[in-house]
Specification:
about 700 residues, alpha/beta, 21 helices, 26 strands, about 20% strand, FAD-bd_FR_type, Flavoprotein-like_sf, S-adenosyl-L-methionine, flavin adenine dinucleotide binding, FAD
């Protein structure tokens, strides 16, 4: 008998840090269980797919990066579909579903997904399943899990409709979507970003999609640990749960397919390390004073030996930092491979893997040692994903610990996962320490730990003012102790940089020494930012909002403006405003002398500062309330700011914290437009959207 041909569909992804790619691979892997064949491609691999002729359903999984930008591997695709020469029926044959990943802590939530969907619809494509907008700010799984659960029925419905009549209108597809939604027996998950709600699995039942499996683990009255001693949990923690979770049946993800073979070989001769550009740190200055809550540091890099590393104010660049030596040593000991740390790592694909699109990670070179792999290639501090926890279950021999890992990766344990793993940013090593009976192989870490990402920093200087130099500023990041972290730790890159510069660090209370120790070097690469730059029109006014270290790029803006004023004394220059804020005037006022110098020279038209903690302490002696935060100062200057933005075609820049400050500034700006123009909230939002589209409201923010 001839083999039955399984229906096919296409999965396309655009991913910056691997989350969208991982989800797309997961869909492709379990497609066979649903009697389907998935053709998986990255959006950048345009030679592997052809949407112009595609007659099967297409599933897009896309993330958003930066200020609402597409991931690097989706950028060209977005540019292609945005061509104005394309007709409105260019994709009239196309049927698609889309899952967008984003973070509501940042502006332009899921903007890449929204851009792709809007353009597909403008070109005639029809949706066969409601779009999901997953928010990493609250946990992607809140939307991702129900979306994936309902996807399979939607794909089969789309295939049925497309087979019966390929020219049928979207009305038939809408009927399917409505039927699928109303026939779901489970309670729909309430997610505001989803149009029809996706079916959510009932606790204790095994959904027949998304590769989940029901694990019956109704706990006995007492659980026995690895020493045979009954365990009674008095309080929930990373390693122990309480009823009802501890007595519930669990819906856990399918076991991820292993796909790598890893072996260690003794090295004969030296390893070839990847060539990296190194630049020396020529100066390091502590900017904060006294007992400030945060320590801010300025580093000056000497880039004179690299003439191609030209930059503009507003650009940023990556610092390549290694994992901490002590943590790498701990991981080597934990894996039982410390004696083989200098052995060469050989990685190949398993011949029996079922993983779709499996490949050896491209960022791992062929000729490296195990020590180099753990130091420079893998993000061993990354927060373990649920798929990683699920894989760890198979390598955990203690029953109580196995059960707890199952809980943490299950739907029923989502709250515990967020509380004990995600929210405290628990690392892979900290998790393994908490579960001592878990002994994963090295291959599992390579399969599940992401690439060690470089850390971006904004340029805090102008090359017109400092030729051959590059400045940047950072706060020392501190992670507090948590249930899975007995002691606090510093940020990976900021802690490493501080250790490097500590011998040459200049303190504000002391004069610079004429002699200094040998200058340390770091690896850097430039990240040009074509939009977050001062206006090209010198006469255009612009407003800058940068509290704390968010002021850094604006120092570069103003240094550039000062040099331009000197070079063009007859030119007409637009107004410049800076809104700066910090805790205390005498401890945290970064670049105070330089900023006041900009005002004196006329480079900076208005400097608005506020000090949130000083104001609290002085409240009892001050009759009038002073502005505590930058948004309060914005409100005090509402009329002039809206006039600059809406009547003088000015620019508005924001740099700093995404979670609080950027949101508050955005809300304040919308309130100001409402008040000054007598508009309702919707119209004010539209005005802000126009400013963004015209690239006159720009953000450089971080979480």
């Amino acid at each position: 008998m001839p083999c039955e041909v399984k229906p096919r569909f296409v999965v396309l992804y655009g991913s910056q840090k691997g989350q969208a790619e991982s989800l797309a691979e997961g869909i492709a892997e379990v497609a066979e269980e649903h009697g389907l064949v998935a053709e998986l491609s990255c959006l950048s691999q345009n030679e592997k797919y052809n949407l112009e002729k595609e007659n099967a359903p297409v599933v897009f999984i896309v993330s958003t990066t930066g200020d609402g930008e597409p991931p690097d591997n989706a950028l060209q695709f977005v540019k292609r579909i945005k061509k104005k020469t394309l007709s409105t029926d260019h994709y009239k044959h196309l049927r698609y579903a889309l899952l967008a990943l984003g973070d509501t802590n940042y502006a332009n939530f899921c903007n890449c997904g929204k851009t792709i969907e809007r353009r597909l619809q403008e070109l005639g494509a029809k949706q066969f399943y409601a779009t999901g907008y997953a928010d990493d700010g609250v946990g992607l799984e809140v939307v991702v899990d129900p979306w994936l659960e309902g996807l399979w029925k939607a794909i089969k419905g789309a295939l049925s409709n497309m087979d019966s009549d390929r020219t049928e209108s979207v009305e038939t597809v809408s009927k399917f979507a409505t039927a699928a939604s109303s026939s779901a027996s489970a309670t729909p998950t309430a997610v505001s970003d989803l149009r029809p709600a996706f079916p959510a699995g009932s606790p204790g039942l095994a959904p027949q999609s998304h590769g989940t499996a029901s694990v019956s683990t109704s706990a006995p009255e007492t659980q026995t640990g690895d020493a045979g001693v009954p365990h009674v949990a008095l309080a929930a923690s990373l390693t122990h749960s309480l009823p009802p979770l501890s007595q519930s049946s669990l819906n856990v993800p399918a076991l991820p397919s292993p796909y790598l073979d890893v072996s260690l070989q003794e090295i004969i001769g030296p390893l070839n390390k990847e060539a990296l550009h190194e630049v020396p740190i020529s100066r390091a200055v502590k900017l904060t004073r006294g007992d400030s809550v945060k320590m801010a540091l300025l580093l000056e890099l000497d880039i004179s030996a690299h003439p191609m590393m030209t930059y503009h104010p507003g650009d940023s660049y990556d610092v390549l930092c290694p994992n901490r030596t002590a943590e790498v040593e701990d991981m080597l000991h934990r894996l039982g491979l410390h004696d083989q740390r200098n052995h060469k790592v050989h990685i190949s694909l398993r011949k029996d893997t079922k993983k779709k699109g499996a490949q050896v990670p491209s960022y791992i070179s062929h000729n490296i040692s195990l020590l180099y792999l753990l130091t420079w290639c893998l993000e061993i501090r990354s927060v373990p994903k649920k798929a990683f926890l699920r894989a760890l279950v198979e390598h955990t021999w203690d029953g109580v610990q196995r059960r707890r890992l199952q809980e943490l990766c299950s739907k029923q344990g989502a709250a515990d996962y967020n509380l004990y793993v995600r929210d405290p940013s628990l690392s892979a090593m900290e998790l393994l320490t908490a579960f001592p009976s878990c002994s994963p192989p090295l291959s599992l870490l390579i399969e599940h730990l992401p690439k060690l990402q470089p850390r971006p920093y904004s340029a805090a200087s102008s090359c017109l003012r400092y030729p051959g130099k590059l400045h940047f500023v950072f706060n020392m990041v501190e992670f507090p102790a948590s249930p899975g972290r007995p002691a606090g730790r510093r940020g990976l890159c900021t802690g490493w940089l501080f250790d490097l510069i500590n011998p040459v660090l200049v303190f504000p209370e002391k004069a610079e020494s004429s002699s200094s120790p040998a200058l340390p070097k770091i690896h850097v690469s430039l990240r040009p930012n074509s939009s977050f730059r001062p206006p090209s029109d010198l006469s255009a006014p612009f407003i800058m909002v940068g509290p704390g270290t968010g002021v850094a790029p604006f120092i570069g803006f103003l240094q550039q403006r000062e040099m331009e004023r000197k070079a063009n004394p007859e030119a007409i220059f637009g107004e410049t405003w800076l809104f700066f804020g910090c805790r205390h005037r005498d401890r945290d006022y970064l670049f105070r002398e330089e900023l006041e110098g900009f005002v004196s020279s006329g480079t900076l038209s208005q400097l608005m500062v506020c000090f949130s903690r000083d104001d609290q302490e002085e409240a009892s002696t001050s009759a009038a309330a002073r502005p505590r935060y930058v948004q309060h100062n914005l409100l005090l200057n509402s009329q002039r700011i809206t006039d600059i933005l809406l009547k003088q075609n000015g620019y508005f820049y924001v740099c700093g914290d995404a979670k609080n400050m950027a949101k508050d500034v955005n809300d304040t700006l919308m309130q100001m437009i409402q008040t000054e123009l007598q508009l309702d909230q919707l119209d004010a939002m539209k005005r802000l959207a126009v400013l963004r589209e015209e690239k006159r409201y720009l953000q450089d923010i971080w979480g």
